Structures
1.
Amino acid sequence: DGGITQSPKYLFRKEGQNVTLSCEQNLNHDAMYWYRQDPGQGLRLIYYSQIVNDFQKGDIAEGYSVSREKKESFPLTVTSAQKNPTAFYLCASTPMGRGLGGNTEAFFGQGTRLTVV
Amino acid sequence: QKEVEQNSGPLSVPEGAIASLNCTYSDRGSQSFFWYRQYSGKSPELIMFIYSNGDKEDGRFTAQLNKASQYVSLLIRDSQPSDSATYLCAVTLSPYGGATNKLIFGTGTLLAVQP
């Protein structure tokens, strides 16, 4: 079955530690996104990528880094520079990256809940 | 001005009533509009998408788009308690003149359907 897989489902981070969240999709989608969701809040865009080896900052990129070495994979690293990383992280992909219009329906992974201990 | 705005609610409606959810967006060049439903602690799931001005119906759900007013809405007819969730509006923006697409979400509206 095609879909998006995020791992781990729960992650605990110590103060000052970098952690990497995994996101893999087998939908052959061009575009991938990382969002952060805080309790009672909407989704805020961290980073997005339209094609391999290219990505753009979203609205809250500070303290995060990404890579897009393969079409299927878009890992997110939460660095020690992110002072308040406790949140629910969602990865999404859409069929179409560049170009106006078209089908940009997003498919989501199950999320990773990150907690600082 | 936020790129996508929604009233956070909660919006409370009685069972069987029509729930009306609204969303405005700032980028006149936006092409694609989506409504997602999210239950607490879960990932969003797509309910409707709409690309053209007017209404689009799917079962109990109707999406309405007015590009001139930069307004998109979702109507839920015969609301059920199982419809109680947060409804997220999402818009595809093209910040680089179509060279790339950026999918932005509103903060969501919490809907509570009272039995």
2.
Amino acid sequence: AQSVSQHNHHVILSEAASLELGCNYSYGGTVNLFWYVQYPGQHLQLLLKYFSGDPLVKGIKGFEAEFIKSKFSFNLRKPSVQWSDTAEYFCAVSGTYKYIFGTGTRLKVLA
Amino acid sequence: KAGVTQTPRYLIKTRGQQVTLSCSPISGHRSVSWYQQTPGQGLQFLFEYFSETQRNKGNFPGRFSGRQFSNSRSEMNVSTLELGDSALYLCASSGRATGGNTEAFFGQGTRLTVV
């Protein structure tokens, strides 16, 4: 079955701390992976995406993610978080005419 | 260019009623998909439309239906509302077919509360 797992449901960090959010997927076809972010009161927006090529992808606002095929993982990282990174983060894999999302990780960054 | 527009932003309905939500995709986008977002469940796929044809449907009861018009605008309808239908309903549009290596652009959603 196609699925995405995000193991960290709630994460609390202080500013300047490093961030890593886990994402594991189960999908039998060609893998296209995404991280979306939802800031409070705003719409979901794309942070970064992986389609092929270099498994380390860089996105907006200093985020990056690494695709590790052998581990079926696509973890999101940021070396130093800011208070403005407080949001909910969703990992997704694209399927046939749909996207399959994880349950999300709520990140709270303390100033 | 304008983003994905969903109306209304907020709705309060009573159990047993029906509701219609609207989504206007980004100009030129022909694919629209719908998701239900609830705390702890993430986004659950409802259905996808491309050029007025439904091409995929999620595991939701038949009370949930949708359609797409020739101008790519889409509506979803929920009949016989239940308390468990309370959620944020998100619409996404894509320039090409949803899925694959295509990015989806999301609207701000319609917050439906069933009382």
